[in-house]
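Structure first, sequence second, as always.
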């Protein structure tokens, strides 16, 4: 699949998301992967700092808060994976640090437009977050990536028909745009535009709370199936 190629004037090299435990103290857990010997510093906002030295494997970092709210900042070397699933995590995707291969955030309160996601990753995984925007951002995808997963992101505004890229040319594409409340027309148009550009196989899940497709996308579904795609959609 492809790289998001959008301008990011607000993004800085060391900033990250603002996190807020608005009701009570709690625990913040991150999973981070980076090149061996690289370092990132977590400034937790409660007077404590943690410098994490990468090992090349995934590391789990947990911090216990004893107060209700804080401002979290992360700085340092580029890492390959950021993952967090704390509901109290807030902020804008435009402030995510650049350079990672994987961005994985689920059951968080992060928001922002999908067009402002960092470029260059191979996995974008956002589930039950508050991100918004038009799925036509897929039209700007450029370099091969493995996964775009948007599940239960109910603030997605829909899909405006666009000329999509050949996202299955090298590796099996994996697209999961599920439980987004898309209309039948939007589902049809997405499938049609996707099929028009593909030369390889992949996986498409576009069901859940999305409306059923119509006969308008029959030819597109047939074309994807002929290429070896798995297509999960409401009929």
């Amino acid at each position: 699949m492809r790289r998001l190629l959008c301008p990011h004037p607000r993004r800085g090299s060391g900033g990250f998301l603002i996190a807020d435990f608005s009701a009570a103290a709690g625990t913040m857990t991150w999973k981070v992967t980076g090149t061996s010997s690289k370092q990132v510093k977590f400034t937790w906002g409660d007077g404590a700092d943690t410098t994490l030295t990468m090992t090349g494997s995934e590391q789990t970092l947990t911090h216990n808060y004893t107060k209700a709210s804080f401002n979290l900042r992360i700085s340092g070397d580029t890492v390959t994976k950021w993952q967090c699933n704390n509901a109290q995590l807030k902020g804008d995707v435009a402030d995510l640090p650049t350079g990672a291969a994987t961005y994985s955030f689920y059951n968080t309160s992060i928001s922002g437009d999908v067009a402002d996601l960092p470029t260059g990753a191979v996995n974008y995984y956002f589930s039950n977050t508050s991100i918004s925007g038009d799925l036509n951002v897929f039209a700007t995808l450029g370099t091969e990536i493995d996964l775009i997963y948007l599940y239960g992101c109910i603030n997605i505004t829909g899909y405006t028909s666009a000329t999509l890229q050949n996202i299955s040319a090298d590796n099996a594409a994996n697209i999961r745009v599920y439980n987004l409340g898309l209309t039948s027309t939007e589902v049809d148009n997405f499938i049609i535009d996707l099929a028009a550009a593909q030369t390889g196989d992949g996986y498409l899940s576009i069901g859940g709370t999305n409306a059923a497709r119509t006969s308008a996308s029959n030819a597109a579904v047939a074309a994807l199936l002929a290429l070896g795609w798995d297509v999960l959609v409401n009929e």
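Margin note: The first strand starts at residue 27 and ends at 33.
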